[in-house]
Amino acid sequence: MQQGHNPLAGGTANGAQASTLSYFRWSFIVTAVGLALGAYLGWISTGTVGGTLSVFFICAVLAVLEISLSFDNAIVNANKLKDMTPEWQHRFLTWGIVIAVFGMRIVFPLLIVVIAANIGPWEAMVLAASQPDEYSRIMHDAHLPIAAFGGTFLMMVGLSFFFDHEKDVHWVRWLEDKMQRYATIRGIEVAIVLVTVLIFSRFLGDVESEVFFRSAIWGLLTFLLVEVLGGLLDSTQQQTLQAGAKGGLGAFLYLEVLDASFSFDGVIGAFALTHNLFVIAIGLGIGAMYVRSMTIMLVERGTLAEYRFLEHGAFYAIIALSIIMFIQPLMHIPEVITGLGGATLIGISLWSSIRWNRKRVAAES
User: What parts of the sequence cross the membrane (predicted)?
Assistant: First the structure.
């Protein structure tokens, strides 16, 4: 990772602005290439200017959707990355983004259809290209287990941040004080998640309830297994260089599963705009690049340390997203509400951080 991008080191506002824009250079390049590919895809599939502009617009909207849904993803990524070695930071920001773009935006939807329709990967690709409506139907039918799995994993991520007895910075003090106090109770996060899953499963039919609960258990087990793996690898991190690399691997796996959970909602929601898998991959792939750029900027600038409540807003947004994913099988919640809700929580936490900084400066002066 490059060093020297310090927003406090510049002098003028223009210099700071140029420094900020430099983080998004590759995102702008990918945006131009992606939108050009979208326009080309619209032309070869429709042969009309109107169809070309329509596909171009959908790609742009999907990119904005992915960005709005992923503010909290970037903040949580930065929170984990700041404790990783530079080598593993670089690996996540290069190979990790490849997995995020191609794995979650292309391979993952194909695998869902492969499993749900019991067909081969090539047949699934052909189905996506030749019968997009049928492909979309299969994806929507698989939404229930995806929502249960992703919602459970994300809720564990959010609660684990607040139920931490070593946590010494509180934003919503009356609530976070209590959560820290009860953090020493073993398995309290697991208990809360299981109770939440049981409550939501009661509102579903017998068959749907069984699928929902089973998928939620897999989401819980995935979180616990990743935590155990990371703990086992990190426990020997200081002993040898090889062990240190393995510790980075544990955090890398955690971030990949986390990104997958964040991506579920965006991938499923994208089918509300288009049934074309390739258009979805282009739009969401553009958005994923901005998440990468925001993550790099947050890590290199030390933004999380400068704005002390920013992480809190992100983790509250994660918990809210997990609840929305649990509600989705019962009623449809537009993705714009999901994105705006998360962005609002992060914006309020940023505003609170700025107020706290101003009060501290005033007190010191």
Answer: 23-43, 49-71, 92-122, 142-163, 183-205, 211-233, 270-291, 312-330, 336-354
Reduced to 3 states, what is the DSSP secondary structure of residue 249? helix
pLDDT digits (tens, 9 = 90+) for 342-352: 778 888 988 99
**What is the spatial distance between Cα 34 and Cα 282, in angstroms, rounded to a whole number?**
6
DSSP state of 271: T
Judge whether residue 234 has pLDDT over 70.
Answer: no
Residue 305, Cβ density class (10 Å: 0-12 exposed, 13-18 middle, ≥19 buried) = exposed
pTM: 0.72
* Largest Cα–Cα separation, the chain: 69
Question: Residue ranges per domain, the chain?
Answer: 16-364
- Distance, in Å, from the CA atom of 351 to the CA atom of 189, rounded to the nearest integer, reads 29
Residues listed for the chain:
365
Share of the chain above pLDDT 90, in %: 9
Tokens 């998360």 label which residue?
Answer: 342
Does the CA dihedral 233-237-240-241 come out positive or negative? positive
**How far is residue 292 from each of residues 23, 229, 231, 251, 338, measured CA to CA in Å?**
9, 25, 25, 16, 20
Residue 165: what are its φ and ψ, rounded to 5°? -70, -15
